[in-house]
Amino acid sequence: MHLDHTHSGPAAVSADAHRPDGARRALRIGLGGPVGSGKTATVAALCRALRDELSLAVVTNDIYTREDAAFLLREAVLPPERITAVETGACPHTAIRDDISANLEAVEDLEDEVGPLDLILVESGGDNLTATFSKGLVDAQIFVIDVAGGDDIPRKGGPGVTTADLLVVNKTDLAPYVGSDLTRMAADAKAQRAELPVVFQSLRTEDGVADVAAWVRERLAAWTV
Amino acid sequence: MSRAALLVLADGRFPAGGHAHSGGAEAAVRAGRITDAAHLEDFCRGRLHTAGLVAGALAAAAVLGVDVRELDAAADARTPSPALRTAARRLGRQLLRAARASWPASELDALAREFPKGAHQPVVLGLAARAAGLGPDDAAYCAAYESVSGPATATVRLLSLDPFDATGVLARLAPAMDSVADRAVAAARRAAAEGVDALPAASGPLLEVGAEWHAAWPVRLFAS
């Protein structure tokens, strides 16, 4: 829906692929998943991997602090004006799914203030297995789980695991220490997700985010065609 | 017009950003002024008769066609706390997005052009009600209800208050909401005839002080 065909003024509905000036807006990718699974670490690694080739920015959704934004600032993965924190009123899933207005304003303000941007990463506050992003907010979503959270999570499924455009199983380096069976996790994920991709990663290794970065580049290539 | 549009606009699930704001309840809880349902009722009654009355009058005046720039300036003048002015504009911008998607109208587009970073929420609420075909009384009711429903919901989360008790508070405040909405509409009609100085300027000093205190916290659940 593009309301500006009949009304003037800035676009009201921001799934629109174009900005009010007619330029194509940045690709928006959401990262969700349980608390502590490595969403912020993955965002930081993606920024380091992609910042020299793309113009990018990050929106964080902390539940009750600004710690995720503060972490990204401390790690200096991007200049501070490219990182915005949204406050979610104790309901991180509401801010990315049911009432996306604060996040939409954050992504639009970033494009206005530091744009043009190729890519905006929207990181959810740590949540439960049912948290997914609205299609009105992001174009694609990554669900991040980790091996230490229990190797039965792919089997349990839920909207995040089954429907995310990319499932990332993080901290594979910990698998031997927590008794997680990566083969079983891969088989369960395949059963839940059919042809949707799954990446197993450890950010402890050199270029550990390479597979996810490659997936992001593919999405961006498809977006900018 | 459709009266049912009021239900859509007043629904707590209307996606206009309210879920992230406590209406001052988080600061009041931390300060020990809200500890149970009885205190919540006192807090909500105070907010209804101050912030709720002013918001209701602003919203009703917007429905009646009072100039939105004047209304926005009047809202600024009635909101001493800079943090609350910022929150009101942020919520206004979020409400405008939802309203334009729900009830497309050139008046709402013009408001978005004029206030790209947001007008005060009650002013936007009034124009949204107007775009939805609602009247000044509907807008005033909506503002009055929002002035207490936000803190009640937030307190359920902040204190793990029994949600039935919190809803009981709202139900007991219903007659007071009727009276505040009536006064708000009467004031809005005077403002339409005499100018925005006729709007009420009731204010709860602790709400303003608490908002400034709250805005400085490094760790909090709600944006305001």
Automatic annotation (TrEMBL), chain A:
Give one GO biological process term.
urea catabolic process
Q: Kindly name one Pfam family recorded for this protein.
A: cobW
Q: Which InterPro entries match?
A: CobW/HypB/UreG_nucleotide-bd, P-loop_NTPase, UreG
Principal location class: cytoplasm
List the residue ranges of the region (Disordered): 1-20
Give the multimer and partner information: Homodimer. UreD, UreF and UreG form a complex that acts as a GTP-hydrolysis-dependent molecular chaperone, activating the urease apoprotein by helping to assemble the nickel containing metallocenter of UreC. The UreE protein probably delivers the nickel.
Q: What does this protein do?
A: Facilitates the functional incorporation of the urease nickel metallocenter. This process requires GTP hydrolysis, probably effectuated by UreG.
What name does UniProt use for this protein? Answer: Urease accessory protein UreG
Q: Which organism is it from?
A: Streptomyces monashensis
Automatic annotation (TrEMBL), chain B:
The domain of life for this entry's organism is Bacteria
Q: Does the keyword Chaperone apply?
A: yes
Spans through the membrane = none
A cellular component term from Gene Ontology for this protein is: cytoplasm
Which portions of this protein are annotated as coiled-coil regions?
none
Entry's Gene3D superfamilies?
Answer: Urease accessory protein UreF
Q: What is its main location?
A: cytoplasm
UniProt key word Ion transport: no
The role this protein plays is: Required for maturation of urease via the functional incorporation of the urease nickel metallocenter.
Q: From the Swiss-Prot or TrEMBL record, give the protein name.
A: Urease accessory protein UreF
Please state the gene responsible for encoding this protein: ureF
